[in-house]
Specification:
By secondary structure, this protein is of the alpha+beta class. The strands form 4 sheets. It has a 6-stranded antiparallel β-barrel. Strands 1, 15, 16, 17 and 20 form a 5-stranded antiparallel beta sheet that branches. The protein has a 4-stranded antiparallel beta sheet with strand order 3-9-8-5, with no helix packed on it. α4 runs parallel beside α6. The two termini are 70 Å apart.
Length: 440
């Protein structure tokens, strides 16, 4: 090894290294080797430290935000109502039978007829009538086929979306009819669904030929007519809606004097008994499109109902939803009750059969955003709620239009800031809440 005076070491073999160590007295007796036990301790320590760091970092990334009990603000309607019995008064004309043993209607129950239209056929025997009873449904089916034959693509708009919607709507109507048990319109709705589906097929260029089906139905109709013995046919002497049954209350209640009805008149109708109907009639005609429901209502409830206004009424046992009536007249009585006359100008098969009914008259209607009462707070003299907007708490005011023990309805404030809005996440419960609080 050569020393240049600056302590530079040139690698020239093992002997030079030993000489260098000796010259500079480097101690090489320190042993950095660890015992197996010490190594295990170090490894365990390092592994534990790694796990702690990993868990901490993972927690920081995925730790959940503070969970609050919230409820979305949605519109709800609430009614204040009064339950009373009512009696239905119509202008009705009984259609007498002209001999024979069995009557088969020619018109659907509640269907419209004009003067001279056949409303029922009277047959000489039940066997003949049983065969003829198929005629009405077959004639309805024939009209359906004839309608399809008259449909041409030139008469249809080119937007297939319209027919997709029509098919879906008619299918939903069928579903609703089945779920509500309203099976009387099932056949009609079925034809409507088929008609809409056919129109959709035509608009996409598919050929629809029902001529063979129509011919087969026509042949069935002619065969039944030739095989059955019709003794007589009853025709309508007035225009109106035909009902093929009588309930025994026809003619009760003066239709023309309905506006003068009193408490006693209504009670007499409600307590009346039906007369025997017998077999001397084929049904009746409802000859006025306006009909009435009369009832006696406590004065404190009737004060909320103004003549000329429209009210919502729920009828027990009526499966087609609520009915909208007009308040036609209110007659004061000395016993704390008001005689209420409600009018309606809609008619279907189920409405045509109503007579003595229990009704719920909705005297007041409230609509607004439904909010749990527990969410209400008063801040700086303003009544409102805290809502969660992302990870920020905000205070919003409410305008209460209805309240009970469990909820309030807040009026919709279109265009006004600072009030509860649709789908706001209202905080039902929480502590240490304030406007602007950040939820971590």
């Amino acid at each position: 090894m050569a020393d240049n005076g600056k302590g530079t070491l040139k690698k020239s073999g093992a002997g030079n290294v030993k000489s260098f160590r000796g010259k500079y007295r480097i101690n090489t007796n320190i042993d950095f080797r660890l015992s197996p036990t010490a190594k295990r301790i170090v490894y365990i320590f390092l592994a534990a430290l790694f796990i702690i760091v990993l868990v901490h970092q993972t927690y920081l990334r995925v730790k959940p935000q503070t969970q609050l009990n919230t409820q979305s603000a949605v519109i709800r309607q609430i009614y204040a109502s009064v339950d009373v019995p009512a009696f239905v008064v119509r202008r009705e004309s009984v259609l007498p039978a002209s001999g024979g043993t069995t009557v088969v209607p020619c018109v659907e129950n509640g269907g419209k007829v004009s003067i001279g239209d056949a409303v029922a056929d009277i047959y000489v025997s039940e066997a003949a009538a049983s065969s003829a009873s198929k005629l009405l449904s077959l004639e309805t089916l024939l009209k359906y086929y004839e309608g399809i034959e008259n449909v041409e693509s030139a008469n249809l708009v080119s937007d297939i979306g319209i027919y997709n919607s029509a098919v879906l709507d008619s299918l939903l109507s069928l579903k609703k009819s089945i779920l509500t048990g309203n099976l009387s319109v099932l056949e009609e709705l079925g034809y409507k669904f088929s008609e809409n589906l056919t129109k959709r097929q035509i608009i996409v260029g598919k050929s629809v030929d029902v001529s063979a089906d129509a011919a087969a139905v026509t042949a069935q109709i002619e065969q039944i007519k030739s095989a059955t013995g019709i003794k007589s046919t009853v025709t309508a002497d007035k225009s109106g809606n035909f009902v093929n049954t009588l309930d025994g209350y026809e003619g009760l209640g003066s239709f023309d004097e309905i506006k003068k009805m009193t408490y006693g008149d209504v009670e007499s109708l409600l307590n009346s008994q039906p007369s025997a109907t017998g077999t001397s009639s084929v049904g009746k005609l409802i000859t006025s499109f306006v009909w009435y429901a009369v009832c006696n209502v406590p004065e404190k409830e009737a004060i909320k109902l103004a003549v000329g206004n429209t009210v919502t009424v729920t009828v027990d046992g009526y499966g087609r939803g609520d009915i909208r009536f007009k308040v036609y007249a209110k007659n004061e009585n000395a016993n704390g009750y008001v005689t209420l006359i409600l009018s309606n100008n809609e008619l279907n098969e189920d409405l045509a059969l109503l007579r003595k009914i229990n009704i719920k008259i909705h005297t007041e209607e409230y609509a607004g955003y439904e909010i749990d009462r527990k969410a209400l707070r008063t801040v700086d003299g303003e009544v409102g709620v805290y809502v969660q907007l992302g990870n920020v708490v905000r205070f919003k005011k409410v305008d209460i239009v209805y309240s009970d023990d469990s909820l309030v309805l807040s009026k919709k404030k279109e265009g006004e800031s600072g009030y509860v809005c649709l789908y706001d996440e209202v905080i039902i419960e929480g502590t240490d809440l304030y406007d602007g609080k950040i939820i971590d």
